Amino acid sequence: MSTEGKAACVLVAAGRGERLGEGGPKAFVRVGGRPLIWHALRAIAGADLVSHLVAVVPAGYERQADELVDDAVAGRLSGTSRVVSGGENRQRSVALGLSAVPADADIVLVHDAARCLAPSGLLDAVVRAVAHGQDAVVPGLPVVDTLKRIDERSRVIDTPPRSDLRAVQTPQGFRRAVLTRAHSDAEARGDTDAPDDASLVERTGLPVHLVAGHQEAFKITTGHDLAVAETVLARARASAAPAP
Ligand code: C5P
Fold this sequence. Notes:
Spore Coat Polysaccharide Biosynthesis Protein SpsA, Chain A; 8-stranded mixed sheet; 7 helices; binds cytidine-5'-monophosphate
């Protein structure tokens, strides 16, 4: 692989998560007996190609996050782990995490704690694609629903062909300098609400490359998603248990 430096993962977990309706930040809601962020940390710790971690958490949750990092990550990463507090929106939280990435990392993954079941292998696949020369990489899956564009009165305007569309996930991976520039350009333009980091890179004119996503990298947003996550974890536990 053509990378001279290392890869760092910025895990953004500083959302307030009101939509989940569980009270408290989404990343600290439990699934399979542990907070969402713990599962995400465990996947990062299990990724062979990730050296450093920066976890971005809501202000006031830094101590709790430190303990979870100790439990899930300690001794499993070759590099450093840091916890920093997040910002008022996702883009700002990523920027704060990015500024805490160690100097020897030349590849940066940005991962949502809300996609806490994304497997370690997906993180490694994204790092590998960047290390092989892509500036920006997103994992994505074909869409199963037909999507319609609508106007403000809910009138359908058009139906983009499904074969042209992908549902994009995280971790998204970047050459560090590319992501840093994309964020500073966005700040200079006054853009604060990018839907994801790849869209900021798209604005710089650089190509963004798509790799195969993973079903388990789905985003936990609703109570239904939480129930699906419980099922995924229970199934994984059952298949890991020794046969009776
Ligand atoms: O709200 P949503 O699920 O789209 O957030 C995606 C990810 O961004 C979540 O993991 C959330 O914790 C994170 N986020 C953040 N800081 C914010 C808002 C969201 O780190 N201010």
